Amino acid sequence: MKLPRIYEGLDREGIYLEGLRRARATVNDMVDHNHRHFAIMTERYQIANASPLGLNFLMFRKAIELQGTPEQQKYWLPLIDGAKVNGAYAQTEVGHGTFVRGIETTATFNHDTDEFILHSPSLTSTKIWPGGLGLSCSHAIVVARLKIGKPPVDHGIHMFLVQVRSMEDFRPVDGVELGDQGMKMSYNGTCNGYAKFDNLRIPRNSLLSAHAQVTKDGSFIQGKIDKTRLLKKTYSIMLHHRGLIPRCVSFALAQSVTITARYSVAILEFKSQHYRILALISQAYAILFASKRFDIQYEALQQDESGDGASARLPFIHALASGLKAWSSTVACAGVEEARQMCGGHGYVALSGLPEILSAVSASLTFEGENYVLWQQLGKYLLGQLQAFTTGIPIAPEMGGFLTGIEQYLRDEKFDAEFKDARRDELLDASKLLSIFLHRSRRLLVTAYRQFERNVQQLHPAQAWNRVMMPIISAGRAFIEYLVLQYYKDYIDAISTAEPSLLPVLTRLYSLFALTTVINPNSQFTSASFTEDGTLSLSQIHDMGEQIDELLTDLLPDVISLTDAWDFTDASLCSALGCRDGNVYERLMSWTRQIPINSAVKESNGVLSSMWDGPYGMEGILKRDIEKGARL
Amino acid sequence: MKLPRIYEGLDREGIYLEGLRRARATVNDMVDHNHRHFAIMTERYQIANASPLGLNFLMFRKAIELQGTPEQQKYWLPLIDGAKVNGAYAQTEVGHGTFVRGIETTATFNHDTDEFILHSPSLTSTKIWPGGLGLSCSHAIVVARLKIGKPPVDHGIHMFLVQVRSMEDFRPVDGVELGDQGMKMSYNGTCNGYAKFDNLRIPRNSLLSAHAQVTKDGSFIQGKIDKTRLLKKTYSIMLHHRGLIPRCVSFALAQSVTITARYSVAILEFKSQHYRILALISQAYAILFASKRFDIQYEALQQDESGDGASARLPFIHALASGLKAWSSTVACAGVEEARQMCGGHGYVALSGLPEILSAVSASLTFEGENYVLWQQLGKYLLGQLQAFTTGIPIAPEMGGFLTGIEQYLRDEKFDAEFKDARRDELLDASKLLSIFLHRSRRLLVTAYRQFERNVQQLHPAQAWNRVMMPIISAGRAFIEYLVLQYYKDYIDAISTAEPSLLPVLTRLYSLFALTTVINPNSQFTSASFTEDGTLSLSQIHDMGEQIDELLTDLLPDVISLTDAWDFTDASLCSALGCRDGNVYERLMSWTRQIPINSAVKESNGVLSSMWDGPYGMEGILKRDIEKGARL
Predict the structure, then answer these.
(1) pLDDT band at residue A359, thresholds of 50, 70 and 90?
(2) Domain B229-561 adopts which CATH fold?
(3) Is residue A368 annotated as part of the catalytic site, yes or no?
């Protein structure tokens, strides 16, 4: 039971070097055995951003694929794949976040030397946040404003491939200031960093030139690029990253629930405990199934793209990726915190592994698109589709079934929802449950749509949007929860022929997921949107509560199998509470005793002396003749 | 703009010593100037547990006050107040948390030497969690099972005052193993620790003997103690600690909101941003006012206690403390996270100060009583009171108004709630809003009561309780939210004569707090309990949304005054984003550049060489002849 190095209480340098060690191991494995597994996720199932070498294979490579000429690709891609360079992607600036048009960094063409001068003209133009940039990158894609001529003409935002460190001693090249952002809530094994450029000279071919070139004489040549197609391709790459998040957060939730289930086996008889853990298990599976379905749809998009390039699927998949990312990160983050709390005090200690999982998953709420922004992207799509539908403009095929049924909501006629008067037993039926979510989603979308239409008659569209934002977000969330349930049901239907033995437990889990979304397990304060219109009656809500009770009883024997099924290794969980052998207290105490500060104190070296007679030590304050006193 | 030491990326030892430095400064200040301010909170408004010297003045002292003889008190209390000793309170054991009856540690009387033998008979009996115990305490109260005679007779759980470290060199005394639990989510400036006893000999007068003594000949003499009175006194001390939490978490929320408001001044025009920040501000004030009211009631309890001792107020105050603690920690924790997210990526970096506030406030969900347990304590009280009321047994005076009005809910007659058909304007009226919360609270309590009564006819009471737990928790939460609103209203009424100029803004904030509790600002998924019975109509809910809009517009100019009013110093916020001068980016970059790993790399010392040619360094993987390549 050796204490994992990461729990030794290392300083910033030690934590970074431990991250580098793990990154080197995974990259060597990829290079030696010619696979790409760790280009997406680390060995602990975190998104590859968590590794100081991870973004080389994601953002850095994708940028060159998208914007590099065939020659540039031919030169750089093998260097990337062989880990012969380590690249970052530097776009965000400290003063204006991800707002691309705000970018201040300039790349000014110098005709005399055939170079660009890369420069950060202000403090706010400092590049910030790129993973790996602080301490680990040899190169970076730098997004900057291209300027040519005297007086300089602004040709907009372009990407430049820039060497930022020497390959002789790894010091930053002259003209580049690089630094680490210090400790963060998580991802401390990598070095998110900043870069400030002071008139750095870079060769003309640093410009990624697939779509725009600067010639030796300073002419700017816009390629014959189909701008729509480029934009779609750019979107599709961003979607790839965004689409990884549901997968990663489902694993984060699954890891936490596995740890908590193994720790709390003994106290699962308490209703609140097994209510919580089974609801979380059902959420982790629901996110995983949804992310698998997303991958299939993304794959189909890729097929289209490699064909005629401009896919009609893109808007729907973009909306889906935004909503799934926002929803799954919200659910997973709350779920990991819930699992942590279920371990009481032990869940607060680093050794449990839970604080690190929680902090990492928290980042997913804001990166790759802040969730409020993403909800609005989904909302915009849904409102646009509904408007098209009402005005007879063709809608996306993916929205057909959903929108066709929405007519009766638009007509505002009283009608009987499919589940109205459903009896107790029927409230477990997969289709009935789905119809409850569908009803809610349609109703909330029409409500938001009407409010927006009413407001936009009096206000500027942006103001109207602002005013109706909350109902729009609600409509988006309800839509995603409906889709997730639909995808889960499809998955069960597929399983029922492929693996019928899994059907009973997955069906119960499906019902539990649906019912505990209607009646939230944390409190009964979260279900207004299901009940406020009165279509679900109060007695049906009570029946649902009793169905949940029975499902919990039925599923309780499966808790350990359902978590073992994720098949996490002890090394990937890195938890004193959650190892497969269940030796919780023995491992917890064994690891605790190995923490270096404890052995250091035991050996009476510098630590003890700092504690006792160092400048703030205890000696100066405590009374030394108390030994006798203890015996009064 | 000097980087605060805590952001240097220190290791476990460095972080602890920084905590000790701060603790020494605050304790010296108390001793030198004869005050008790930092006995409750640290200089950064964290609960005193966060300091390695903090529990000396709280738990350690209180235990001696409660269980020590006059002689023991006379000897120890001045040593505590003068910080001549530093004590811990060791009760929890690793295998059974705070479950007192599970305690395994034994103190066996040895007649021959006139001593007790303190012993940890198993791994699970290791004492764990006491603040300061790991590295900083000279003494500890150890809760152990008293055994006397041959064969030993078990005399139950008692407190022993034990010296654990030498006052000569501060090493653990022979027979005690002490250690630090390593890194936690927060509170790393202190050293929560463990202690394992190996037949440690302690003198007979180590037993705190106010209520039970062991004589030289080994007789056990139970004092003429009124057990009920002792229990009440014990409760009252626990209530004191529990009651500190709402105060501390209101400051944590206020600090976060202050940082976020100062950082996001520029983007407050976005509706979602000012919706969120003003809702959080209203919550921080609501918690603060409620905690002030709790203090007044606790003070009255103390008056009673110093009189005849057994106060009739205790059960209500106990229920109130449990509910307020559970509610305020839940709200503050969600609010701090929300504020952190509003700062985007910057809120993820330690320098923002927000990760530390978040991690610290997260602890309050589980310590001093896990919230699920506390909600049930409140629920038990409420159900008991309602049962008393229905069966004609006298109820607590504090519950009079609430229960008298509950009759019509019990009669199950249709009746018109006070706010039924309230028009738009009336939905801002303080009394009307309060009546909405009162209605919900009464309705949910009666629902939970009926469900319990129905279930208890068929099931064992514990099973019935288990089955109805969720409705009971909902009823508790609704009751607390009603009380908090009531206390807020009382506060406004008092202000209206004392400081009439504050009335408009505090009244708006009151309405905003109430309305955004009905219509939750994060989503519209949280208000089922207000709407599910249909008494509030859908059109009233819409009206509330519009009232919120107007309140936000009215309150927007006050955002900075409302946060400045808490009067936090820059030093206590310790945030690059939230200083009073508003120089966000300048400070952020200045602090970032001062992080030691950055200057270390610049000076090309050991760090750079670890990064480059250390065992996992980059040299072994990157291609060194690439300098030319960069120019392709």
Answers:
(1) very high
(2) Butyryl-CoA Dehydrogenase, subunit A; domain 3 (1.20.140)
(3) yes
Which phi and psi angles does A148 have, rounded to 5°?
Answer: -135, 140
A415 in B contact zone (CB under 8 Å)? no
Cα separation, B517 vs B549, whole angstroms: 14
- A131 assigned ligand-binding residue: yes
The domain segmentation of chain B, as residue ranges, is 12-225, 229-561, 595-629
Tell me the sheet residues that pair with B310.
none
Chain B interface, best mutation among A618, A624, A631, by max B CB count within 10 A: A618
Q: Where do runs of H (alpha helix) occur along A264-392? A: 271-306, 314-342, 354-363, 371-391
Q: What is the mean pLDDT of residues B500-510?
A: 94
Beta-carbon separation of A135 and B585 below 8 A: no
Question: In this predicted model, what pLDDT tens digit does every residue of A545-593 receive, in sequence order?
Answer: 889 989 999 999 999 999 999 999 999 999 999 999 989 999 999 999 9
Q: For position B413, what pLDDT does the model report?
A: 67
Contact status of B215 with chain A (Cβ, < 8 Å):
no
Contact A608, B192 (CB under 8 A): no
Please report how many Cα atoms fall inside a 13 Å half-sphere around the Cα of residue A535, on the Cβ side: 18
Q: Provide the whole-model pTM.
A: 0.91
- In chain B, residues with a C-beta closer than 8 Å to the C-beta of A368 are none
| Ligand-binding site membership of A215 (annotated) | no
Q: How far is CA A5 from CA A10, A17, B159, B181, in A?
A: 8, 11, 38, 15
DSSP string, B542-564: HHHHHHHHHHHHHHGGGHHHHHH
| Amino acid at site B630 | A
* CATH class, A229-562 region: mainly alpha
Reduced DSSP (H G I as helix, E B as strand, rest coil) percent helix, strand, coil of chain A, to 5: 60, 10, 30
| pLDDT digits 0-9 by tens, A162-186 | 999 988 888 899 999 999 999 999 9
Interface of B with A in 57-116 (CB under 8 A): 71-72, 75, 79, 82-86, 92, 94-95, 97
Instruction: Tell me the pairing of strands A87-90 and A139-148.
Output: parallel
Domain B12-225 is found in CATH 2.40.110.10: yes
The CA dihedral of B235, B238, B244, B248, to the nearest 10 degrees, is -140
Find the length of chain A. 632
Q: Which residues of A touch B184 (CB under 8 A)?
A: 348-350, 355
Tokens 């805590």 identify what position?
B6
pLDDT value for A264: 86
Q: Say yes or no: B184 contacts chain A, CB-CB below 8 A.
A: yes
Contact call for B138 and A586, based on CB within 8 A: no
Give the torsion through C-alpha atoms of B313, B319, B321, B322, to 10 deg: 160
Burial class of residue B532 in the structure, from the number of CB atoms within 10 Å of its CB (0-12 exposed, 13-18 middle, 19+ buried): buried
∠ CA A23-A68-A123 to the nearest 5 degrees? 70
DSSP secondary structure string for all residues of B9-25: ---HHHHHHHHHHHHHH
**Could you give the count of Cα atoms lying within 13 Å of B97 in the half-sphere of its Cβ?**
15
Which chain B residue has its CA at the smallest distance from A343's CA?
B366
B588–A contact, CB cutoff 8 A = yes
**Nearest 5 degrees, angle CA A591-CA A596-CA A601?**
115
CA distance A569 to chain B (A): 23
Decide if A499 touches B, using CB distance below 8 A: no
**Beta carbons of B604 and A169 less than 8 Å apart:** yes
Average pLDDT over residues B473-482: 93
- B185 interaction partners in chain A (CB closer than 8 Å): 348, 350, 355
The per-residue pLDDT for B524 is 41
- Inspect the interface and report whether the beta carbons of B167 and A275 lie closer than 8 Å: no
The mean per-residue pLDDT over the stretch B203-223 comes to 92
Looking from the CA of B497 toward its CB, the CA atoms found within 13 Å total 3
